[in-house]
């Protein structure tokens, strides 16, 4: 059993996908299951942290001892996270936020008369980048989802979003990333990186929290 080494730490975690509705019955989304973020929330709770988990649509049971805020769209996720941001001492952003949403959400179900259709999308706000602009003494941890060698891109995100750590994972590898029980990640800092072995999301969550603790100066 781990000690309560994060006792009292106020941790904000995001998990799962967002849904960007096109009309009342259709949406754009991605295959995030929420497992990675839920694992972080549960591991932090077990180590004594106070945890708020902002979760997009997932089938996972809400963890006991964690305040869960359910959202659907990126704009709702942004609002829920920014509402809690002043309270938080550290943030782990494992959600797969949709980069775009429909420019217009149709009020009625769209007819399927035409053979081709064009959908106009607009960019969603980058929530983590917004938090990074008002970082204060918080520890900010992001994830970077890449489909090919992505160390350079992950580090670019780390710098642009003003993060302490970005957790790089590859979503097109068998048995890791989206939906799976395991993940294989690289911890990327400004000046170095550390590849972790393939392991359960819970084990990786605990390693990420070890880093949060160290960056916080011991808690
Ligand atoms: O949920 P699982 O099935 O367990 O899968 C886990 C996961 C693969 C979804 C997770 O490990 C992961 O990689 N999450 C982040 C996915 C992602 O959106 O990566 P990105 O490279 O597009 O974004 C970089 C960072 O900015 C992320 O922390 C993201 O949450 C954040 N972001 C992105 C876009 C946006 N508009 N606002 C954001 O805050």
From TrEMBL:
One of its GO terms (cellular component) is phosphopantothenoylcysteine decarboxylase complex. The keyword Signal does not apply. Residues 11-219 are annotated as: Phosphopantothenate--cysteine ligase. Keywords: Decarboxylase, Flavoprotein, FMN, Ligase, Lyase, Magnesium, Metal-binding, Multifunctional enzyme. It catalyses: (R)-4'-phosphopantothenate + L-cysteine + CTP = N-[(R)-4-phosphopantothenoyl]-L-cysteine + CMP + diphosphate + H(+); N-[(R)-4-phosphopantothenoyl]-L-cysteine + H(+) = (R)-4'-phosphopantetheine + CO2. Its EC number is 4.1.1.36, 6.3.2.5. GO terms for biological process: coenzyme A biosynthetic process; pantothenate catabolic process. CTP binds at residues 99, 109, 125-128, 143, 157, 161. In the N-terminal section; belongs to the HFCD (homo-oligomeric flavin containing Cys decarboxylase) superfamily. In the C-terminal section; belongs to the PPC synthetase family. This is Coenzyme A biosynthesis bifunctional protein CoaBC. The lineage of its organism: Bacteria, Thermotogati, Deinococcota, Deinococci, Thermales. The gene is coaBC. The chain holds residues 178 to 396 of 396 of the full protein.
């Amino acid at each position: 059993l781990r000690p309560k080494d994060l006792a009292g730490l106020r941790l904000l975690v995001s998990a799962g996908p967002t849904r960007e509705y096109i009309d009342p019955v259709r949406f754009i989304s991605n295959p995030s299951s929420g497992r990675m973020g839920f694992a972080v929330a549960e591991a932090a709770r077990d180590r004594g942290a106070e945890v708020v988990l902002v979760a997009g649509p997932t089938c996972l049971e809400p963890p006991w001892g964690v305040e869960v805020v359910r959202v659907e769209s990126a704009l709702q996720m942004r609002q829920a996270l920014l509402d809690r941001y002043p309270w938080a001492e550290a943030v782990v952003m494992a959600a797969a936020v949709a980069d775009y949403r429909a420019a217009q959400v149709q009020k009625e179900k769209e007819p399927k008369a035409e053979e081709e259709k064009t959908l106009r999308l607009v960019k969603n706000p980058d929530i983590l980048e917004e938090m990074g602009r008002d970082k204060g003494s918080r520890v900010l941890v992001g994830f970077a989802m890449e489909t090919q060698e992505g160390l350079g891109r992950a580090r670019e995100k780390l710098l642009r979003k003003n993060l302490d750590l970005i957790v790089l994972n590859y979503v097109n590898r068998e048995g890791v990333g989206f939906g799976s029980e395991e993940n294989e990640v690289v911890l990327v800092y400004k000046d170095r990186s550390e590849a972790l072995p393939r392991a359960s999301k819970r084990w990786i969550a605990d390693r990420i929290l070890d880093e949060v603790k160290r960056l916080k100066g011991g808690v």
